[in-house]
């Protein structure tokens, strides 16, 4: 075999090994390559995973076809093994038109499809019915956030709306640092802020990621469908401790969540409340976030 | 040059005969003659080789400087990979020397400096200058048949403006924590509030000064390339006879000229925020780590818009010249005309045009209005179309050729192979909803390394092997070149392909130690595999260094046109003397006339080859008059 053909086999190994690695990542249940999107517990964001799969399938096919063509041309037209003269061709107008139009149509369809998905998770903010009591009318009000996360070097400060269901009022309940609780199967609206530099609030299990910008408030929404504890990750470089900005996202039943909030509220407002075990210790007043300075 | 030593004595003859091997003796003599006005040897040396205004010397100065920085940037990457594979372990050999205070391990603040400085060095000191300034300077005048750049002195300043940048960013390595630490994107407030991180101190000021100097240097270069390309083409060199390398450098120069001032201004504004207390990028009462609140009144997102308004076109600045060079090499070694020359030129222009309106795709999750994200997504997805057209045309060029498996050809095919991967994964992250998940994860790291390191560096290596004989009159060793290619290709893929899986598992970028998260705890073995591949790919570059250095002095001597190539630079002596051509080049045809069945004796037709009697009848009689060359 000529050297040229050995080189072309090396180029063939790229689509084979690449596709193989992706398949293992997707399908394997254990082993060092068993890495894939974490479980999605946010029913509002299932379309994101589907969109990813559609695009991945599409580009996977293009990857395999073009890489194999690259191999095949290298193999076939290697000068040392192919006696034919080179074709004196400058191009082909029809081909150019087709291979411009077909990708264009596919890509435009993709773009349009993703608008809807994106609008659902980022643009069409959940609304509440206005005075007329029905949703979808002109007097709908945006649903106010029921919790707030403030990114601060290098921790997450949490607050929940009190009985008035409004943040920034006197009955706000201060949560534990680095631990966000959420009731199962309830659509929640939250507010994101930063106290010092940029942070990015990322809960992989919810497919929720948004930067926190000092001086601005970001609104996010999600719904958690499966009880458990999940990672909160910072994905915007925020200083030397960026890597250790870890939080816990706890999904629990609605009753458990109500109990949790009540315990936090009592610890904060009820002087006669006896704090239980040390693990139940809520945030002490001195650790309250310095929100006022960034507003 | 000819044996008679009189430049220009061949003008009246068909210049095509120059394409066969010519003796190269006397070239260095001619070179020295070009500066003969100075009698003092030292001054003459300084003028010829240090403060030279000759585009070739400036190109080589850029080439050597950038290759040295390439090594520095590579070593920084090795340190990053060490930390990710063996977190908090003592770094072997260099650890005890560099961080004796920490007992030989990388501190978290130094890790943020590592990622910042690695990216800064690779982007601002390696990929951009090696493509636009080293190859651009060396090749543009030669490939269009000009004797030098339009503004030789400005050209010299553009190189020497890099030195303040080298010194500023180089000295930031000596300011604790040994380099700026806000990422190469330098997002405020982290990059402005000095109390926010150890890396945001003096090192960040030096970094900003360095970036501003790079910007000024590239602006001087781009103005020069544009003027030269428009004004100084040889007679007959119409725009549609330019080789793709020159077209790509032309479009790149436009991108640089229009986008860079924004970054330079933005960097200076960030500098005044830091030093003079202005508030372009800081919100009211911004403060970090209990520092005194600043007056502020600005917006952190403003920086991101200004930064990406430059840095997205910069992505194309880093890939378009590589695409042009690969087009030339693929056509040459397939012995076949480039497939679809006009569509290729159109695709370049469309990529560059769209490149100005897609910067927001770096900011889908930044907190800017999500509605804007949709606009940017539409434009970004569109940019995949011209990219696909280019890949299809490269495949079309290989199809039906007589492929010569030379080192430059292998690197060019390696470029196409990796560009397919890097380009396609770009469609995933162009999609706003998918990007919400993979933004700032290793998916992105895999993507841009496939484009910038996989693709652009493949083209750079290919270009060095390809034009080395022109630059130094000697060949690089082909055998070791191929070994270098094989190892580099295998280990780059081994390094960056698995990163897609890390990204699918959502491992974030710029994490000194992700393994304490439950989600990322089982990613250590794959990261160790990646690091071993990275170390091996770094080691493979030593083959290149040795090959380059030995062949510089002892490589096989060659004549003008060792690759039997059509473009004008191969009609000049190797290496070309001062003034480049020893005859007046006149261009009669396009750059890719390989394997023309009407040309019976050989499979290439240099651009200077006169048309035969039959051809000249069909030739457009006004073709010569179309050029605006000052040589006429």
Question: What key attributes describe this structure?
Answer:
heterodimer, A: 295 residues, alpha+beta, Immunoglobulin-like, 5-stranded mixed β-sheet, 21% strand, disordered C terminus, B: 632 residues, mainly alpha, Cytochrome C Oxidase, Chain A, 20 helices, 59% helix, disordered N terminus
Oligomer: heterodimer
Gross geometry of chain B: globular
Number of helices of chain B: 20
What is the average per-residue confidence, as pLDDT of chain B, rounded to a whole number? 89
Strand content range of chain B: under 5%
What fold name stands as the CATH topology of the largest domain in chain A?
A: Immunoglobulin-like
Mean pLDDT of chain A: 90
Assign the CATH architecture of the largest domain in chain A: Sandwich
Helix content of chain A: 25-40%
Q: How many domains is the backbone of chain B divided into?
A: 1
- Main sheet: strands, sense, barrel of chain B: none
Catalogue the unreliable spans of chain A.
Answer: 277-281, 285-295
By CATH, the topology of chain B is Cytochrome C Oxidase, Chain A
């Amino acid at each position: 075999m000529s050297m040229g053909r050995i080189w072309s086999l090396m180029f063939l190994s790229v689509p084979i090994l690449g596709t193989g690695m992706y398949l293992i990542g997707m399908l394997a249940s254990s082993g060092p390559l068993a890495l894939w999107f974490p479980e999605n517990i946010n029913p509002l964001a299932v379309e994101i995973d589907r969109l990813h799969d559609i695009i991945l399938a599409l580009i996977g096919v293009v990857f395999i076809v073009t890489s194999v063509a690259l191999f095949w041309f290298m193999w076939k037209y290697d000068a040392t093994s192919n006696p034919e003269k080179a074709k004196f061709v400058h191009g082909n107008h029809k081909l150019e038109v087709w291979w411009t139009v077909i990708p264009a149509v596919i890509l435009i369809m993709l773009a349009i499809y993703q608008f809807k998905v994106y609008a659902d998770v980022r643009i069409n903010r959940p609304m509440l019915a206005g005075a007329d009591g029905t949703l979808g009318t002109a007097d709908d009000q945006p649903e106010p956030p029921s919790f707030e996360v403030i990114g601060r070097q290098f921790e997450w400060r949490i607050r929940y709306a009190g009985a008035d269901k409004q943040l920034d009022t006197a009955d706000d309940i201060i949560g534990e640092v680095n631990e966000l609780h959420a009731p199962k199967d309830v659509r929640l609206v939250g507010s994101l802020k930063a106290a010092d530099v940029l942070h990015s609030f990322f809960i992989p299990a919810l497919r929720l990621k948004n930067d926190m910008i000092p001086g601005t408030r970001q609104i996010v929404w999600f719904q958690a469908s499966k009880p458990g504890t999940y990672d909160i990750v910072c994905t915007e470089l925020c200083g030397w401790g960026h890597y250790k900005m870890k939080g816990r996202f706890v999904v629990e039943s609605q009753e458990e969540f109500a109990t949790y909030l009540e315990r936090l509220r009592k610890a904060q407002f009820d002087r006669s409340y006896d704090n239980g075990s040390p693990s139940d210790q809520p945030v002490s007043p001195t650790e309250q976030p310095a929100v006022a300075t960034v507003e | 040059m000819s044996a008679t030593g009189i430049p220009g004595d061949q003008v009246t003859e068909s210049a095509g005969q120059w394409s066969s091997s010519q003796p190269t003796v006397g070239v260095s003599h001619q070179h020295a003659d070009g500066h003969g006005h100075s009698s003092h040897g030292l001054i003459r040396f300084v003028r010829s080789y240090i403060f030279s205004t000759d585009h070739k010397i400036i190109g080589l100065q850029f080439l050597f400087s950038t290759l040295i920085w390439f090594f520095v940037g590579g070593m920084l990457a090795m340190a990053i990979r060490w930390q990710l594979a063996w977190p908090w372990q003592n770094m072997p050999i260099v650890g005890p020397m560099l961080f004796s205070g920490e007992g030989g391990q990388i501190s978290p603040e130094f890790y943020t400096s590592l990622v910042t400085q690695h990216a800064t060095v690779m982007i601002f000191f390696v990929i951009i200058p090696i493509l636009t300034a080293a190859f651009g300077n060396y090749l543009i005048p030669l490939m269009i048949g000009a004797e030098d750049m339009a503004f030789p002195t400005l050209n010299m300043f553009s190189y020497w403006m890099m030195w303040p940048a080298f010194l500023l960013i180089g000295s930031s390595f000596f300011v604790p924590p040994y380099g700026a630490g806000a990422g190469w994107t330098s997002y405020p407030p982290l990059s402005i509030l000095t109390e926010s991180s150890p890396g945001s101190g003096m090192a960040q000021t030096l970094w900003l000064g360095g970036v501003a100097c790079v910007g000024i240097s590239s602006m001087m270069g781009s103005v020069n390339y544009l003027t030269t390309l428009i004004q100084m083409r040889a007679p007959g060199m119409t725009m549609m006879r330019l080789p793709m390398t020159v077209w790509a450098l032309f479009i790149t120069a436009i991108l640089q000229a229009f986008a860079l001032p924004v970054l330079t201004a933005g960097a200076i504004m960030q500098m005044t925020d830091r030093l003079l207390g202005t508030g372009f990028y800081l919100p009211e009462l911004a403060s970090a780590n209990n520092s005194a609140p600043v007056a502020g009144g600005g917006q952190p997102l403003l920086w991101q818009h200004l930064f990406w308004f430059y840095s997205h076109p910069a992505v194309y600045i880093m890939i378009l010249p590589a695409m042009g060079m690969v087009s030339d090499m693929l056509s040459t070694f397939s012995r076949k005309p480039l497939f679809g020359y006009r569509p290729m030129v159109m695709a370049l222009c469309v990529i560059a045009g769209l490149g100005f309106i897609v910067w927001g795709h770096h900011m889908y999750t930044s907190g800017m209005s999500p509605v804007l994200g949709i606009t940017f997504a539409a434009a970004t997805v569109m940019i995949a179309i011209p990219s696909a057209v280019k890949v299809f045309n490269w495949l079309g060029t290989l199809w039906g050729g007589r492929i010569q498996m030379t080192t430059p050809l292998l690197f060019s095919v390696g470029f196409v192979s990796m560009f397919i991967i890097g380009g396609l994964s770009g469609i995933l992250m162009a999609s706003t909803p998918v990007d919400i998940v993979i933004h700032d994860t290793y998916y992105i790291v895999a993507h841009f390394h496939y484009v910038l390191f996989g693709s652009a560096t493949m083209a750079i290596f290919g270009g060095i092997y390809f034009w080395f004989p022109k630059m130094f009159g000697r060949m690089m060793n082909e055998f070791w070149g191929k070994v270098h290619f094989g190892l580099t290709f295998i280990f780059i893929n081994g390094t960056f392909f698995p990163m897609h899986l890390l990204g699918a598992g959502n491992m974030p970028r710029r994490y000194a130690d992700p393994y304490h998260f439950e989600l990322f705890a089982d990613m250590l073995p794959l990261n160790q595999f990646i690091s071993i591949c990275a170390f091996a790919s770094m080691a493979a570059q030593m083959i290149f260094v040795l090959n380059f250095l030995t062949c510089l002095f002892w490589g096989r001597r060659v004549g003008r046109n060792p690759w039997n190539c059509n473009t004008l630079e191969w009609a000049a002596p190797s290496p070309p003397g001062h003034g480049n051509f020893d005859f007046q080049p006149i261009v009669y045809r396009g750059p890719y006339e390989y394997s023309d069945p009407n040309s019976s004796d050989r499979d290439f037709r240099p651009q200077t080859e006169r048309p035969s009697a039959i051809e000249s009848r069909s030739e457009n009689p006004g073709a010569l008059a179309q050029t605006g060359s000052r040589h006429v």
